[in-house]
């Protein structure tokens, strides 16, 4: 009898604790939702620099902010990107040639922006420029040069741009928006160079956010899942996979076999069917720049929210039990 009473009392304590946690979480969610609805006033007084505006997220964001009345400097790698934005946007938007992997190019862009904003400073910097790098197959197909090429743009370029433009951001107590990826939270074994870069983006952004609190500069991380952009173009992705395969040694091609290559292609095609509209990512970028209470981190897309990020919370040994089916099927012990 005593045991039954104690057990019931213990169950009641657990239920009460769960109810309290649920109530607190609900209150937190409602308050957060309410605060995040607020928008900054006088957006027309603010200036934003966006990198990687030739296509994709950067291009869409530049046009969105232009429509909202912000002054935008849109960094483009190509002259074609500059021409397209000049034709499709208002005079408030100024496209400029900018290669984030070249410090000289970044310095040239800095001088243009500094002269334009003067003592007001720069309100927003969106580090969006990036490349997919070598993607497909498996880790040992990528070379050191593949890692260097990806790091030069996706991580070192971001760091260089941020360091150079920080003085202008400090003047306005502005915001830095860094585009990472769900691959920055969960390792993607067939995109080693890209994943390494995005893990670095996460670390750099977290360090920067904490360091810049003293100056009132906020740092926000965008973590998209798989969205429809130029770097996820299926024809380009499959063509690159063929190129990577052809440059492998005969021994490596024998070790993996053409079945593994075909399975890799099938996997890429299946991912292509799951691609989501990039508009949600642009919405998150806009919120990070224009909301009175922006988030520090934005996870975007059902694949990122329901698969990638939850998997990153698993114990390492459990997470490692989820390789792609193609690897289980084709990479057998006889070939190793």
TrEMBL record:
Domain of life: Eukaryota
Entry keyword Membrane: yes
GO biological processes: steroid metabolic process
Keyword Membrane listed: yes
Gene3D superfamilies registered for this protein in UniProt: NAD(P)-binding Rossmann-like Domain (3.40.50.720)
GO molecular function: oxidoreductase activity
TM region positions: 14-35
Cross-referenced InterPro entries: NAD(P)-bd_dom_sf (IPR036291), Sc_DH/Rdtase_CS (IPR020904), SDR_fam (IPR002347)
UniProt entry keywords in alphabetical sequence: Membrane, Oxidoreductase, Transmembrane, Transmembrane helix
Family statement: Belongs to the short-chain dehydrogenases/reductases (SDR) family.
Stated name of the protein: Retinol dehydrogenase 16-like
Annotated organism of origin: Branchiostoma floridae (Florida lancelet)
Lineage: Eukaryota, Metazoa, Chordata, Cephalochordata, Leptocardii
């Amino acid at each position: 009898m005593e045991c039954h009473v104690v057990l019931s009392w213990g169950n009641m304590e657990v239920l009460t604790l769960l109810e309290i946690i649920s109530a607190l979480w609900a209150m937190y969610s409602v308050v957060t939702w309410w605060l995040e609805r607020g928008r900054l006033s006088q957006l027309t007084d603010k200036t934003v620099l966006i990198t990687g505006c030739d296509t994709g997220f950067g291009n869409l964001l530049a046009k969105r902010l232009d429509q909202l009345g912000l002054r935008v400097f849109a960094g483009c790698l190509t002259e074609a990107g500059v021409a397209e934005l000049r034709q499709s946007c208002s005079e408030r938007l100024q496209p400029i040639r900018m290669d984030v992997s070249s410090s000289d190019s970044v310095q040239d862009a800095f001088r243009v922006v500094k002269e334009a904003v003067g003592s007001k400073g720069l309100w927003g910097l969106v580090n969006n420029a990036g490349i997919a790098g070598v993607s497909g197959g498996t880790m040992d197909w990528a070379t050191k040069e593949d890692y260097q090429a990806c790091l030069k743009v996706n991580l070192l370029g971001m760091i260089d741009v941020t360091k150079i433009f920080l003085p202008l951001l400090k003047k306005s107590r502005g915001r830095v928006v860094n585009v990472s990826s769900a691959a920055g939270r969960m390792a993607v074994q067939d995109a080693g160079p890209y994943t390494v870069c995005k893990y670095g983006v996460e670390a750099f952004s977290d360090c920067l956010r904490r360091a810049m609190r003293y100056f009132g500069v906020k740092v926000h991380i965008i973590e998209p899942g798989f969205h429809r952009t130029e770097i996820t173009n299926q024809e380009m992705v499959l063509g690159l996979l063929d190129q990577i395969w052809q440059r492998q040694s005969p021994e490596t091609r024998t070790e993996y076999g053409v079945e593994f290559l075909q399975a890799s292609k099938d996997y890429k095609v299946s991912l292509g069917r799951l691609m989501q509209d990039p508009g949600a990512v642009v919405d998150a970028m806009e919120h990070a720049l224009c909301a009175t209470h922006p988030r520090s981190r934005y996870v975007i897309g059902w694949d990122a929210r329901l698969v990638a990020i939850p998997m990153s919370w698993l114990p390492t040994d459990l997470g490692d039990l989820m390789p792609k089916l193609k690897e289980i099927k084709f990479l057998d012990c006889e070939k190793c």
